[in-house]
Amino acid sequence: MAALAGLCALPRLCGVALFLSQLYVLSGRAGSLMTTKHSQPLSTFAKSLTSASTNTPYFKAAESTEIPSYVTKCPSNGLCSRLPPDCMTCNTNYSCIYGKPATFDCKVKPHVHCIDENNHEQENFTINMTCQFCWQLPTTDYVCTNSTSCMTVSCPRQRYNATCTVRDHIHCLGNRVFPKMLYCNWTGGYKWSTALALSITLGGFGADRFYLGQWREGLGKLFSFGGLGIWTLIDVLLIGVGYVGPADGSLYI
């Protein structure tokens, strides 16, 4: 009887075991599905973090600004009123009266630092200047190019086209670089005193003309013994008054 009861219970045990195995398989699939669903947003979020961290240096590089070139011309912590015009922006008033004092409101450009008379840093300030255009300034307020190809000793005196630039600490209206016609004014290193001394002492041998670079006239005086003294006396007078100058057309020093 006991053996018969054991045989009858065996199918029930097999059914229970089969049910438990199916339940285990189903629970494993559900867990894998849950894991997959939760892992996708996490991976997407991780990718977004990675891309954001990768792009961060790019945005930083785009936001970084280089120092402008004009900063090298601007003295740090100097007086604002003494800054060069390239370091500031001013409200120019062209309706001021020529030759009269004028006041303009100015502001320093970015990356420029300056102070007032009380050593306080400021950005907005005023400058005082004479109402006039840059090309009307005195000759001491600008620098011009020089020409060595024109004759300084001529009648009428020659002029040349020069390009002039206003000095940094000078303020004026209009363009700070302008053209101007100037008289020829350059020297080749010849001294008037040396030329006159040679004309008086050795003028009969053409030493004065040789010194000034006038070889033809020097040879003429040498072989004519100073034009029998007449040419020598004339050259002393002409060099003394400055009528005869260096052959290159420059001025005496």
From TrEMBL:
**Gene this protein is translated from:** Tm2d3
For this protein, the record's InterPro entries field holds:
TM2 (IPR007829), TM2D1-3-like (IPR050932)
Query: Which superkingdom is the protein from?
Result: Eukaryota
Q: Which PANTHER family match?
A: BETA-AMYLOID BINDING PROTEIN-RELATED, TM2 DOMAIN-CONTAINING PROTEIN 3
The protein's topology relative to the membrane is: Multi-pass membrane protein
Entries under Pfam families matching the protein? TM2
Q: Record's family?
A: Belongs to the TM2 family.
The membrane-spanning stretches of this chain are: 190-210, 222-244
Annotated Gene Ontology cellular components are: membrane
Give the protein name, as stated in the record. Answer: TM2 domain-containing protein 3
Question: Which keywords are on file for this protein?
Answer: Glycoprotein, Membrane, Signal, Transmembrane, Transmembrane helix
Q: Where in the cell is it found?
A: Membrane
Signal peptide, first to last residue: 1-28
Domain TM2, by residue range, is: 189-236
